[in-house]
């Protein structure tokens, strides 16, 4: 019943910024872990960032200091602020969610059951 829709992707020059949004609808709960994942052509999906129900966050080493994950519970929206973008960040970005918390900071795709359709980010 949970539906996730990403937006905010696009093309940007290296060094630029972009903010992705993920609107959640249906039945969502404060106990859900939410995360951002990305997948480039020919590569496996990787966990970029995750945020637990208590606000705790986790980031992939490659994006630490550049990306910030946050959520607005009142708006039922997840965000990913991406700064100092690099060509290596080019990928399809997906929003995901799953009920629970023990697995959250591990950012493993297999642990998440609800997924958005993805939004493309291209850095040149």
What would you say this structure looks like, in words?
The chain is mainly β and about 120 residues long. The chain has strands spanning about 5, 10, 20-25, 30-40, 45-50, 55-60, 65-70, 75-80, 90-100, 115, 120-124. The protein has no helices and eleven strands. Helix content is about 0%, strand content about 50%.
Radius of gyration: 13 Å
Order of helices and strands: EEEEEEEEEEE
Rough outline: globular
| Subunit arrangement of the protein | single chain
Count of helical regions: 0
Flag low-confidence runs: none
User: Biggest sheet, open or closed, and with what strands and sense?
Assistant: 7 strands, mixed
Report the count of strand segments.
11
**Class by alpha and beta content:** mainly beta
Could you give the topology of this structure?
Blueprint: E1 3-7, E2 10-12, E3 18-25, E4 32-39, E5 46-51, E6 57-59, E7 67-72, E8 77-82, E9 91-99, E10 114-115, E11 119-123
Parallel strand pairs: 2-11
Antiparallel strand pairs: 1-3, 3-8, 4-5, 4-9, 5-6, 7-8, 9-10, 9-11
At a glance:
The chain has 124 residues and is an all-beta fold.
List keywords for this structure.
seven-stranded mixed sheet, four-stranded antiparallel sheet, about 50% strand, about 120 residues, mainly beta
């Amino acid at each position: 019943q949970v539906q996730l829709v990403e937006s905010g992707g696009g093309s940007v020059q290296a060094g630029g910024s972009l903010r992705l949004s993920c609107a959640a609808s249906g039945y969502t709960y404060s106990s859900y872990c939410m995360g951002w994942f990305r997948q480039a052509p020919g590569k496996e999906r990787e966990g970029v960032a995750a945020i637990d129900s208590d606000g705790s966050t986790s980031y992939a080493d490659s994006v630490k200091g550049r990306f910030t994950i946050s959520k607005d519970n009142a708006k039922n929206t997840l965000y990913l602020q991406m700064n100092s973008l690099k060509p290596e960040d080019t990928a399809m970005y997906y929003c995901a969610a799953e009920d629970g918390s023990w697995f959250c900071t591990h950012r493993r795709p297999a642990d998440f059951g609800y997924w958005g359709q993805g939004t493309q980010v291209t850095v040149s």
